[in-house]
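Final report, Chapter 2: Outcomes

The project's central promise was a pipeline that accepts a single protein chain and returns its three-dimensional structure in a standardized token representation, suitable for archiving and comparison. That pipeline is now operational. To close this chapter, we reproduce one record exactly as it appears in the project archive, with the input sequence first and the structure output second.
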Amino acid sequence: KKCPNCGKVNAFTLLSCNSCGFSLKNVDVSYPNNVFAGFVYGIQKGPFPFTISIRHQCPKLLVFDDLMAITPCHINCIPTDCYVRDLRILFENPEKGLALLNSMYSAAFKVIETQFIGNKKWKQKILKKGETHDAKTLEKHLISGLNFPPSQYWLHLQCMLPPLTPFHYSMYLEGRHFTYGRFFPVEYVKSALELGAPIKNAREMGIQELIRKIEAKGVRYDEYWTAAYARYGMSHRALSNWNAKDFSRVIVNGKTVAQSGDFKVMKENADDILKKDKLALQNYGRPYREDGRPSGNFYKYAKKKVLPVFLSSDSSSK
């Protein structure tokens, strides 16, 4: 479902946009471009330019900033040497599925460690007592996982280092992020794959059926998701270094804009404020262009031939 308010493509199961919070109850299911496929094949543009805020690239993986970031450090990692539609196929060959997931996680966390945690100014501004944290400590706070159904049918591992931005923390408190039954914490997926038990035809299986089969082998989704969701909030509160002095406005009940400090109601549009906040707080497309818009590049290992499907006979992962 494409949000009519902000334009974000959301999974068809969501009732509200997980970028701006707009209701999707009356939005029809549509079939937009697969942007990640555009990235991998080096397509210049679709309805908009397919440029990427690249953090790491190699012939097998691509790591980039999430355009719809909900934390100042929010990146995605996708495989680029084969097509992996979504997380379900990983369970048909747990050994190879786990190897792929581990490689994606390692590449993503290395970016976070070197380009975010390793940036002293960034760490001191964004993280509470930033100078006291090292990569090993902060990895315990990482928010990482896979969605099903995804917004884009190309396996992508999301990795976020808290804190959440103020708006998205409010969405977290309302239960509109990391949705139960859709968000699969990386800890859960890894534990399930480590069972080493192949699940035949998992790629075509309903997600609830897949969860039940994994639970029957001893790994319970409910336990992992509940613990992860609670930890995300605790990690936000432990690391959040937002300063009210850095914000000139307060949004009340999602609509009313008030002046920070005396809470004088302002005749301003809340969505406009959120868009400005997004540009100010995100790391996507840095450094910005002269016109104040994000910059971007193209994948230098763009594929010239159709990629094999993960685990297929012509795939290196078969």
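Archive annotation: The mean pLDDT is 94.
This record, like all others produced under the grant, will remain available to the consortium after the project formally closes.
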